[in-house]
Every structure is written in structure tokens, then in C-alpha cells.
Amino acid sequence: MTSVAAYAAPAAKAPLERTTVERREVGEHDVLIDIKYAGICHSDIHTVREEWGKTHFPLTPGHEIAGVVTEVGSGVTRFKVGDRVGVGCMVDSCRECENCRGGVEQHCLKGNVGTYGSRGRDGEITQGGYSTHIVVDENYTLRIPDGLSLDVAAPLLCAGITTYSPLKNYGAGPGKKVAVVGLGGLGHMAVKIAHAMGAEVTVLSQSLRKKEDGLKLGADHYYATADPRTFEELRGNFDLIVSTVSANVDFNAYLGLLKTGGTLVNVGAPENPISLQLFALIGGNKNLAGSMIGGIAETQEMLDFCAEHGLGAEIELISADRINEAYERVVASDVRYRFVIDTATI
């Protein structure tokens, strides 16, 4: 085991502080990654504040990781020293179940091993990317194309794939009308990706405060959901709605914005249960779906797509001593649109 510098939450809801975490020695199929940048995802905040349930402390969050390979195991074939790589929300799975064999490892029937806060196959609790180095199996490591700088690529490992997967799988493209609910860390990438796919894109946000940003990012239209006229004007308008918000919204109202046979996909994860009137689904044969990141192959596909179209995240680069400040600003929706930690400052 090797100790590396990191930032960790010592207990639930406690401020993160500088510390060290242990990394395993590089195994036969492992790569050692010198982490250059780590994105701050709202999931990190939910987890360290135990808003999604109990977790293990001390905990180093971070599953939007971009860096450079500095060592490879003897059996590694996918990467070499010097390669630019990323790590997303999972670092292992059973590799044997139907889902793993089918390329949807995120839905491993035995449970995937999350990048942080999960018990790995070695019995140890995983620690994430708010650190200087990480050791990851090559099969759960992604190649970052040369067309993407590492700082703007880091958030793609969660925010990018979380929005790319439902947009692709539910048919965003030319001739389709797509709405994105919320223009935050996830939403701004959903707008960029949907636009690059050729869809007509509408942002549905609480207010018009970010309208100028939304249009610059690729939205064709921008509406305030606080205005009840929005739900009247847009009724029956969309083929696909992607909800990116982690707060409870009126799903019944949003279902009313779908065309017959349209789909509302939720990628946000509110802390509390939602209320749903089933007649809102039955009328118009509408669909309410969920989506969770993507498999390794699909994540690589997303990175290649983003490089081809020049799609990096909009970021605010911070030093590690500003992580706690950044958490408060994320909760207050005061970031445009993803905080990224310069891990050289850890």
C-alpha cells in the first residue's frame, strides 16, 4: 500500500480536510494514474452529507477523474505510461453477470464497485479522486482523446455520460424536440450534447437568469418554469425530456409537455420520494424512465463524441482548499457549471 495526499470528509456533514489515503500496489492489470483534475459532482455532496443513506468515513469523494498514466501492470494491454486517461463512477463489477457481459456494468447484478464509498473485491472501501493518485483496473479506465483538455474532460466522466446515455438511447437527433430541465452541471452538458446530436433543444429552468448562457451552449429556446404559461404554451410539444435536477419537481406537469408516446427521463436523484398521478402517464401513452451513467464502452463512445464535436464542460477551476466553499456554492446553484479541483494543490 502507498499513502497519497487527499481531501476527505472525516464524518457525515463534516467539512473536508487534507489527509492521506492508501492506494494498493499496482497489480497485473492495473494502471497508476497521476490525477491532474477532479470534478465536484452534486453526488459527492449528497454522499458525504449522508443524504442518500449511510456511508463509510473517512471518505474521499470524486468520480470525475482525469490524469496521466505513470505505471502499468505487467499484463496491461490497453494503456502505456504517458497516456491521458479518465475514471468515472465505477472501478469494478462482477464481470460475469448478464449485465456485465452485455456492456452495462453500471447495472451489475451483484452491484458495481463505486469509485468511492464502495467495498471493493479486496474488501477495502474505495476512495475517490480528490487525491493525487489512484490505482484502477485497466478495464475500468477510459482513454481521453487528444481533442479534449484534461480539465474540461474531467466532468464528462459523470456529467457527460449521465446525459449522453439517455439522449442517445431515447433517440435525440434531427427532427426531435428535446427539453432539458435544469441548467446546472448535468443540464449544461445535456444541452451541448443534444445540440450536437442535431435535436431542437429547449431549456426549462426556474427562471430566465441563465437564458443567455443556455442559448450560447446550444439551446434553441429557453423558458421559465416558474411562469405557469410555460406549461400551457408547451403542452404536448416534446419527444424527449431529460430532467437533470436533484430536487423534487412536479412530474405530472412535465409529463403534460410530452407528445403522444414521448418519454421523460430522470437522471437527477432527489432525496425524497416523488408524487405521481398515473393518469399523466396513461393519457398519451407516455413513458417515465430513469438512466444511470453508462457502461465502459458507452462512456468511451461519449468521450470520443465530445472530442469530435469539441464539447468540454464549462468549468471553474479551484484549489483544493476551496472544496468546502465549492460545496456550499453547488447547493446554492452558484457555479457555471462545474467546479474542478486542480489536484496539484492538494
From TrEMBL:
Keywords, ordered alphabetically: Metal-binding, Oxidoreductase, Zinc
Positions of the Enoyl reductase (ER) domain: 14-341
GO molecular function, one term: oxidoreductase activity
InterPro entries: ADH-like_C, ADH-like_N, ADH_Zn_CS, CAD-like, ER, GroES-like_sf, NAD(P)-bd_dom_sf
Keyword Methyltransferase among UniProt keywords: no
CDD domains documented for this protein: CAD1
Cofactor(s) listed: Zn(2+)
Catalytic reaction(s) noted: a primary alcohol + NADP(+) = an aldehyde + NADPH + H(+)
Enzyme Commission identifier(s): 1.1.1.2
Pfam families to which the protein is assigned, alphabetical: ADH_N, ADH_zinc_N
Family: Belongs to the zinc-containing alcohol dehydrogenase family.
Protein name: alcohol dehydrogenase (NADP(+))
Highest classification ranks of the organism: Bacteria, Bacillati, Actinomycetota, Actinomycetes, Kitasatosporales
